[in-house]
Design a protein that fits this description.
alpha/beta; Spore Coat Polysaccharide Biosynthesis Protein SpsA, Chain A; 7-stranded mixed sheet; 4-stranded mixed sheet; 11 helices
């Protein structure tokens, strides 16, 4: 049986609805499993909602204050403390089917975002930015958390403790800027990871940005991607209205087009 950890982090009260869709559809995705819900306590509205949800659903409530409210610190702490198969979920998922039976053959499994063009570099405007393939942190099944954590520790020793799992890293070379996103990137975890199958992906979807969707909106608008920004808002509005069927396809539209 999986241990489930949910991390809730929203920017504002107006973004709460899109940052707790995981909680609203949790019983569909993981029925019968008592989760631990990590609350960054970013806003009063978020804290109130998450505490009430935990009380109503017999979940374990864990709050993070001060410097510990960073999602990166929460993720690292979950990984460091885990000894059993663990699922880590952001607040931006929508579940349509039971995912308890997800088969994981390697150390970890998730939705693999393909390699693509990154954001234009301000320091090197004439360079092409390449964003390496990486697993989305919205939903990750970690079958072997102790092995994963041991590898993280080895990499930290290799790189004089400058390696950070939950921070982007960059290499500038020969007209290119190579961006390695935070979390589990394919170049680093290729032999220990596997991507979700088509069947796995059909059981849930994701609202990009979730409780921080305004950050995505600003980014898309600043880059002149008006059509994609409008598409994104369509899914955001569906999440606010709890119109779950209308969110099907959100992940494909925002990550694979």
């Amino acid at each position: 049986m999986w241990n489930v950890h949910i991390v809730i982090d929203t920017n504002s009260a107006s973004e709460l609805a899109t940052g707790v869709t995981t909680l609203k559809t949790y019983d569909t995705g993981f029925p019968g499993i008592k989760p631990t819900v990590h609350d960054t306590c970013r806003t009063y509205e978020q804290m109130t909602y998450v505490k009430k949800w935990c009380e109503d659903n017999d979940a374990i409530y864990s709050r993070s204050l001060g410097s510990f409210k960073k999602m990166s610190i929460i993720y690292e702490d979950i990984l460091r403390r885990s000894t059993q198969p663990t699922v880590v979920i952001n607040g931006d998922c929508v579940f349509y089917q039971d995912m308890r039976g997800t088969v994981v053959n390697k150390w970890l499994k998730g939705f693999l975002m393909p390699q693509g063009e990154g954001l234009k570099s301000l320091a090197f405007p004439d360079y092409k930015v390449v964003k390496e393939a990486a697993y989305s942190d919205s939903l990750t099944f970690i079958k072997e958390p102790e092995k994963v954590w041991n590898k993280v520790q080895l990499m930290m020793r290799d790189f004089d403790y400058n390696y950070k799992l939950w921070a982007d890293s960059f290499v500038v070379r020969d007209g290119y800027v190579y961006q390695e996103p935070k979390g589990f990137t394919l170049p680093v975890w290729k032999t220990e990871s596997e991507s979700f199958s088509t069947d796995d992906l059909s059981k849930y979807d994701t609202i990009k940005g979730g409780g921080q969707y305004t950050v995505i909106q600003k980014d898309l608008t600043d880059r002149g991607e008006t059509a994609l920004a409008n598409t994104h808002m369509t899914y955001v509005n569906a999440a606010i209205a709890e119109d779950w069927p209308s969110i099907v396809g959100a992940r494909t539209a925002m990550y694979l087009t």
